[in-house]
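Now for one record.
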Amino acid sequence: MTAATSFTPRPGPTWNNPRGDYAARNVNMTKVRNTIDSVPRNGVIRIAVYSYNRRDIGDALIRACRRHVSVQLVLNDNAIGAEANRMIRYLGRDTSPRWKDRCHPRKFGPKRKPYPVPSFFKVCQGACRLGSERSNQHAKFYLFSATGNGKPVVMFGSNNLMSFAANVHWNDLYTVVGNQKMFDDFSTDFAQMAQDRWRKNPYVAVQDGPYAVEFGSDPHAIGPRDHIFQRLGKVGCRAPVGYGDAGHTTIRIMMYGWVGARGLLLARKVAVLSRAGCRVRVLVSGAGRRVHAVLHRSGVAIRSSALDLDDDPLTGFDETGWELFSHEKWMSLSGTWAGEPFKGVWTGSENWSDVSRFNDEVTVQVPFASALAAYDRHFEMIWAQYSQ
């Protein structure tokens, strides 16, 4: 049995639009589902997300399983609903190779062996690799061993497999096609997550061709040792010709959770860059008041993409009045970085917050002018139409 379709996902970023029609709201979900349907027999699908409730995705995973694709999921334990329980019953929780693997059933015989790439639905008790119940499996990535063109696919960004994520959030989903080392490195991180055990060194940085990938967090890396602080510390505010704006490095930050002591540390670093001449603009949703104040005082242009559409503070997400907000976590830069001309984006799952230091996270540097242009266009659209 081959794949259900010959679909190959388009490389680069996509965004859903929660203010659009069904197709626009579900762009990322459709891309994931179509890619699942394109994985051929004996392929592998690995998905790590914070939350999941999409039956259409579950149905696609079951279709893949029935054509003997190994299906593996790792999920945080915050909201295990009916759909997650359906998939847990179907795939099982056991992450070890076993004889009775749902996606690779075998006839009994004297030389029977467990299938080496088991299928499972693993729910971590808090963060998977940091052994902390007060934090989360917060990474969001999708791995496919092969699709329509026979090449591996890796997707990452802010997108959870939730109807809420399609209908209320803006989310990004960046797709890389044909990078085997990236697929392997993400798979290594995934395998560690599936063990749900404390790792001595949970923060790992790897280079996958042009992409620099950061897995996990380091709870002990505070202050100047913080990896985001160090990333910001490599920014130079004088831009060469063809970069930035009139000789100034430009920075765009779209951040859902920018709070706490760590958030304040990073806000002060961004403020330093603004005062040094970087042209900085920021879109936030859940930003702390002190973070907002520090940025505003330093001349950073800042707006909120969290909107109360019905002017009723009692109706909205959680304890907020928001009916619409950005869930994205990225920074773009055109100018000077690490002493060199740079155009690109850092995107993934990590908020600029205290709790993120204890989470399973992933952030990828995408050093392409095309990615910069796409993310900045998206930023300008939200800034002009859906912020205040």
In short: The chain has a mean pLDDT of 93. The chain has ten helices and 18 strands.
